[in-house]
Amino acid sequence: MDHPERGGVTVLEPADPAAVPAPRAEPEPASRWARALAGVGYRERRRTSLAEQLVPPMPDGPGVTPALVEPSPLLVRLGVRLPAPLWSWLCRWAGWLGPLAVALFAGVLRFVNLGSPHALIFDETYYAKDAYALWHLGYESNWSSEANGLITAPNPTVPLNSTSAAFVVHPPVGKWIIGLGERFFGMDPFGWRFMVAVLGTLSVLMLARIARRMFRSTLLGCVAGLLLSVDGLHFVLSRTSILDLVVMFWFLAAFGLLLVDRDKSRALIAERLARGESADWWHLGWRPYRLASAVCLGLMTGTKWSGAPAVLALVLLAGFWDSSGRRLAGGGRNLRGLWDFAWAGVSVALTAAVTYLLTWTGWILSSPAPGKGGYLRDWAALNPSDTWGWVPDWARSLWHYHHEIWHFNVNLHDPHTYQSNPWSWLLLGRPVSFFYESPKNGQAGCTTTECAREVLAIGTPFLWWAGIVALLYCLYRWLMRRDWRAGAILCALAAGYLPWFNYQARTIFLFYAVCFVPFLVLAVTMMIGAMLGRADASPDRRLAGATGAGLLVVAVMWNFLYFYPIYTGQTIPMDDWRARMWLDTWI
Questions:
Q1: What transmembrane ranges does the database entry give (predicted)?
Q2: Which residue among 36, 187, 326, 506 is the one 20 to 30 A from 416 at the CA level?
Q3: Phi/psi at 105 (nearest 5 deg)?
Q4: For 346-428, where are the alpha helices, taking DSSP H only?
Q5: Contact indicator for 267, 54 with CB cutoff of 8 Å
């Protein structure tokens, strides 16, 4: 299915050694520098046609997979014989069927018992209620101190306060999304977690398709989706009504759309070259996927300001990808290469900024009368200005509100039990307990003297610790092999991770890292692809690589199952809970 002759990844069946192609002879490096690079593993890329360099073929699909595919030797050996038309159809649509199956698996995990714990856990106490107020008032309002108890009572009531606007420090997109689930299913735990679980499931599907497109392998695409579906941090955040999973979703969507734009634009370049046109173009016409990516970046920033660095990262990626495509087509380094970056910056950043502004529509349309609309909506009316009086009152009030939000966010230094430093995130040094109870015998299903019930926001340790090695591998691939895929993964991960190092004195938490978890998974997937080896490697090499890669995936899945009780708030004996606290800092 993966067309190894086109660079895909597949697991070869044992074959006659005479039928296995011999490894290609590598030419002796000519220069001293080339020999030095060869000494640390660098090899020249396989020579391919210009069209294939611009757009490598996909592993399967209509127009790629033959109309009639030979039966699988493995299935034949197992005694499974599918009708030829059905088998050919499955092979042709494997690029969708595989990712959809993985997404279905992820969805079942996330939606089973989604309403448990029946409580407002951790920051749900803010976002679930803010979302409800947004859908009913157009802006967030203050709530009474008894609100949580009333909402989660056996006979719940929702004490919405429509006269007192609340100061909130995050834009409204994520809360609008959370509130959509409340509109469908009511103001209860399942309702306020529903849409986040939907986005968590869809992100698994997106990552599988993104990995397939990046690595040109349906197998690796499904591996990436599977690994994300069993990451503990992604799993817990997919079942909790807070904003960070929403930030991750829009970031991943923006990255995927930009990746599609890269393939579409390069296919257009290949068509132009086939017609004999030069590489001296100023633009490639309408770029709907790039604009859609920019809209997603605006929605990401409109969920949390921590999404803003992603705009710069994807602008740089778009510029580099256009410039490298131009050079590959023979355009060289000239003024048009600089134009690629300038146009990427204008088109992406401007579209993202307009989208961000539109996310505040509910607040803007609320009443500007004193005490009647959103928080500080009346600021311009209460503070007239001769200098800036020509600016619409909503714009002046919104600017002042943003100033207050910025001041709060950069000066948030209140100590918290579960805060952590970003240096420790990849090591999972200090996870966050979203929910904890210690039921006694006979309570909440406890059958021993003492039990524990916890929802712990922590990544699957084996996946994250393997991710550290994978990031080093990607760094090598980027520096020594000029692999654009490794560069893209590192760029996106850096945008979600490195900015937090500038706020080490601020109160920050490990679960902010969910923003870059998909790119950590992509790094691990790329490393697994290297473990599998080249399609023309010897059977022994392929068998060893497949065994190592399979053991890694199985270990990650076992690790997720082992921690599953403390991801979902299940009641377990206290000794079993202590056995899962591998580090003292996890308590």
A1: 190-211, 218-236, 242-260, 306-325, 337-358, 462-479, 486-503, 509-531, 543-564
A2: 187
A3: -60, -45
A4: 350-358, 361-365, 379-382, 393-410
A5: yes
